[in-house]
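S1.2 Input.
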Amino acid sequence: MKVIIMGCGRVGVQLAWLLVEEGHQVSVIDYDANALNRLGPNFKGQRITGVGFDRDVLVKAGIEQADAFAAASSSDNANIVAARIAHNIFHVPRVVARLFDPQRAEVYRRLGMLTISSTTWGAERIRELLTSAEIDPILSFGSGEVSLVNIEVPPQLVGRMVKDLTVTSEISIVAITRQGAAFVPTLGSQFKDGDIIHVAILASALERFKTLLGLSEGG
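S1.3 Output.
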């Protein structure tokens, strides 16, 4: 993929390196030439000094051939403008904007733009860690509405079926790892001792999931 990242702060740098290491072609834009030095001397992608929503700068970065665009600067306004230009003018297939303001992120999400609110995500993640010590989410989706958790099957569930732990639209077993090999189970699949269960859970259903596992107080 050809990916353009606007913003060379901590998020932009980490994202750029992750994508390069996966073999993607990456261009990073920042108005501060010194910020681009954060990528390090071994970075194999392209570095562009300039304003990330300037048409000429975007063209220089290869936006006309881009498969994806990430607006990851520290400015919500700049990220919104750049993302809209990438989406509406250059028709980049995949555009994501990082926004600090949760309300603005939600507004633009409703308009069809992919947004990440680091404020909301961070708050949700901290809440998960504070209130769900027994179940540690490894990944959150959206603004924390859905989490992916891994948990070793408790003794009381050994021999029970996936359907016993499934709640439509709230709790879904997406995979089971057994003896080092993962598979996608059916509702009739049985849990065995030592299984690692990979579960997608609606945030509002976390307590219900803990109850099904027998982890809640009195459960």
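S1.4 Remarks. The longest strand covers residues 171-178.
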